Amino acid sequence: MQYTITNGKCWVIENPMRPGEYMASTMSSRAKHFTFKQAKSLLNSRNKKMSWIRHGYSMVGEDGKAPSVSPKAKGNGGAFLAENDVFVDLTLLDQIEDETEKYLSLAGWDESELSNMSESLNTYLSKLDSEESDIKHALVIYAHNHNGKMPQAHKIAKVGYMFLHILIDRAHVKACMRKVTIMKNALTYSYSIGKLQHELSKNEDGEYSEYKPRTAKFEETMKILEG
Fold this sequence. Notes:
A hairpin with a 7-residue loop joins strand 2 (11-14) and strand 3 (22-25).
């Protein structure tokens, strides 16, 4: 069973600005839910910051009743009897072991390794930009050398596929550059695992996931491609 701690007018909630710290609130909907042992420990806390909780506060179960065992009782007597009993879910142990294996399998790149990766990615990007520029210039030079004549369809198709591969690779490199930057920031600013996961997930779809067209050519091109 879960318990809230209240004096009838206020409820104990977790400080939204400082997780792990507690404060009183008149909003019962935000009340923190505790196990019997957690609530008992908090009510018996000797922390000076929590001295207020020792005056008039008590635990109330999900059924609206006080526990049958007094939270003031010393020791662990009754901690897991009757409504305080808990189911021991051994699958939790497997989850913890699996998660531990995932952490241990991480490469754990340090700042030096990430910096080397950034340099390599910048080099890759520079080459891809040069390849993109070369193809653009080759097309214009061809048209100029042939008095404005366009290349034959089968030739332009080959060039188009080659050009597309370069653009796809370039977008992938840019996405990886952003991810490496996030990982470097994680080291610099001591990101939590959750913060790092959140930042990396925002970049999961790459450079063009939320592209906003600048001209009508985007829609025109999409109609040709999708038509």
